């Protein structure tokens, strides 16, 4: 482009040279030689070459092309000069514009098609959409495809509600809308006995879906709405509906944000219901007032069998109110009050009420209630009198050795308690010795849970000596009792003689390899009872694992079906040895041993 501009300027400054150009075609070779000899001629020739025009010979029938040269007038030279600058600039602008439009088209989103189907073009509804993976929600704004899949899943749930006796829909998060959708199927099924809608994001509004459904369904026995924030308002709505229901026997409203007003609604329902047997209200916010309402219901209701109030805020006053209700009740069999901070005063009132009631209580849970040795005395007095109590849980209190001694004295007189949990009560060797003495003359206790008590090897020694030939303990739970390798020697020796213990829990006792080796020696001896052995959290390494593996191989009549060595320090070598032992036992006896690393 620069070269062309120079030629144009030269032609303007030398008009004579340009005008006098030779246009002859008679001697082309001569003309070429002359041009090559003269530099000026070369430049003029380049200039003229730009104006060559191809003309078709119209007159000639042979179609031969004739090339002629035409010299433009000098007045067009300035136009050429300007064009030489404008044309390239114009081309640049045009290309830039095209590229800009292309990029804009690629980056800008496409507009929605007007030809969408009615379902796809419909604006999403407000609120949550239905989701069926536990712990997930589909917010409004998801595609119609997801909405269709959700409704399809709901249809599948509806079919289950129409066809099966027991349906578990917990953790699906279908919310109030989903429950309304499924309610019709619930009314339709006359064979469904148990349904769980737990953890589905159902609110008080959603409980209205049961209206006119539960009245017509008399086959449903268990309704679980736990883990849904229905609150007091939802409890009121649900209880008003259930008043006319003659089928529900078990109502589960755990972790449902219920307070005293919700408990009052449940109490009013209990006063009128003759079919409700089990009421679960665990982990709510029920206080003294709510406990008082429920106590009043117990005075009038003679149908309910079990009440679960674990993890509420009853306190000593709530326990006192409940005790008064128990005095006039004849039907209650299970009372669960774990984690209500009732304390010594509360347990005193409660035991007084239970001692006066005509109800034959079989299960009593007063764990984690800040009960000391003083409170243990009142529990012991009730245990001495009870002839129906089968299961007693005092886990995670603080009765100590003094309280353990009182409970032991009561157990010597009691002949009904088969399962007792005294774990986590700060009982040392002295207290465990008192508990152990009970087993000499007691063949009723089959499960003894005394874990999380620091009685150490000394307490283990006394207990092991008695368990060699006495008692009827089938499940012995001694986790986190600080017995160490020395204590494992005592219990290992017991296993050689004992013929009742089938479940042994020794987790977290610091047995190490030495303790594992001691137990392995006992496992080599024929033991026709022990089936489950838990040695987790004991700092056992490969040497201990090798010893246990060899014991399993050596005992052809081994009865163990479950061996837990999880959370120890085994390498791949120890794990491999245990795996080989497991395979060996299966090959020899065709018995499966479940070994956990």
UniProtKB/TrEMBL annotation:
Swiss-Prot/TrEMBL keywords: GTPase activation, Leucine-rich repeat, Repeat
Molecular functions per Gene Ontology: GTPase activator activity; small GTPase binding
Keyword Repeat assigned: yes
Entry-linked InterPro entries: Leu-rich_rpt, LRR_dom_sf, RanGap
Pfam families associated with the record: LRR_6 (PF13516)
Keyword Repeat: yes
One GO BP annotation of this record: nucleocytoplasmic transport
GO cellular component: cytosol; nucleus; perinuclear region of cytoplasm
This protein's name: Leucine-rich repeat family protein
């Amino acid at each position: 482009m620069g070269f062309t501009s120079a030629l144009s300027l030269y032609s303007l400054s030398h008009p004579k040279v340009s005008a006098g150009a030779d246009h002859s075609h008679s001697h082309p070779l001569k003309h070429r030689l002359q041009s090559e000899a003269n530099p000026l001629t070369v430049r003029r020739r380049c200039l003229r070459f730009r104006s060559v025009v191809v003309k078709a010979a119209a007159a000639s029938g042979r179609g031969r092309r004739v090339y002629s040269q035409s010299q433009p007038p000098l007045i067009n030279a300035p136009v050429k000069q300007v064009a030489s600058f404008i044309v390239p600039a114009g081309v640049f602008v045009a290309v830039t514009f095209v590229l800009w439009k292309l990029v804009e088209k690629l980056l800008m989103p496409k507009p929605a098609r007007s030809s969408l189907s009615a379902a796809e073009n419909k604006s999403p509804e407000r609120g949550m959409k239905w989701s069926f993976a536990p712990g997930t929600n589909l917010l409004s704004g998801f595609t119609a495809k997801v909405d269709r899949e959700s409704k399809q899943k709901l249809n599948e749930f509806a079919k289950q509600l129409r066809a099966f006796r027991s349906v578990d829909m917990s953790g699906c998060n279908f919310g109030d809308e989903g429950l309304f959708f499924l309610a019709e199927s619930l009314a339709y099924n006359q064979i469904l006995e148990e349904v769980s809608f737990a953890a589905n994001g159902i609110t008080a509004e959603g409980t209205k879906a049961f209206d006119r459904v539960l009245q017509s369904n008399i086959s449903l026995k268990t309704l679980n709405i736990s883990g849904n924030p229905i609150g007091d308002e939802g409890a009121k709505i649900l209880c008003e509906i259930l008043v006319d229901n003659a089928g529900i026997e078990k109502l589960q409203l755990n972790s449902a944000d219920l307070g005293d007003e919700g408990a009052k609604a449940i109490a009013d329902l209990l006063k009128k219901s003759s079919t409700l047997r089990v009421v679960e209200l665990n982990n709510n916010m029920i206080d003294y007032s709510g406990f008082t309402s429920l106590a009043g219901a117990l005075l009038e209701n003679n149908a309910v069998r079990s009440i679960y109030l674990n993890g509420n805020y009853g306190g000593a006053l709530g326990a006192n109110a409940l005790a008064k209700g128990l005095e006039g009740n004849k039907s209650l069999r299970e009372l669960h009050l774990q984690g209500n901070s009732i304390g010594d005063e509360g347990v005193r009132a409660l035991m007084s009420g239970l001692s006066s009631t005509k109800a034959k209580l079989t299960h009593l849970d007063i764990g984690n209630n800040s009960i000391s040795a003083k409170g243990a005395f009142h529990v012991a007095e009730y245990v001495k009198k009870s002839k129906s109590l089968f299961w007693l849980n005092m886990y995670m209190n603080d009765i100590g050795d003094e309280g353990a001694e009182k409970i032991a004295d009561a157990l010597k007189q009691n002949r009904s308690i088969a399962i007792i949990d005294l774990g986590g009560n700060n009982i040392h060797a002295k207290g465990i010795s008192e508990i152990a003495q009970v087993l000499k003359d007691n063949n009723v206790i089959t499960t003894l849970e005394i874990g999380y008590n620091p009685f150490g090897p000394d307490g283990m020694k006394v207990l092991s000596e008695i368990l060699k030939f006495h008692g009827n303990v089938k499940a012995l739970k001694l986790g986190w009792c600080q017995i160490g390798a020395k204590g494992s020697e005592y219990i290992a020796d017991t296993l050689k003689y004992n013929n009742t213990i089938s479940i042994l829990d020794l987790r977290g006792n610091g047995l190490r390899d030495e303790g594992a080796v001691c137990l392995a020696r006992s496992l080599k001896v024929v033991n026709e009872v022990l089936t489950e052995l838990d040695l987790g959290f004991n700092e056992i390494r490969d040497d201990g694992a090798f010893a246990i593996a060899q014991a399993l191989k050596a005992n052809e009549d081994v009865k163990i079906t479950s061996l837990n060595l999880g959370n120890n320090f085994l390498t791949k070598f120890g794990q491999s040895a245990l795996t080989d032992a497991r395979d060996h036992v299966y090959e020899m006896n065709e018995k499966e041993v479940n070994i956990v690393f």
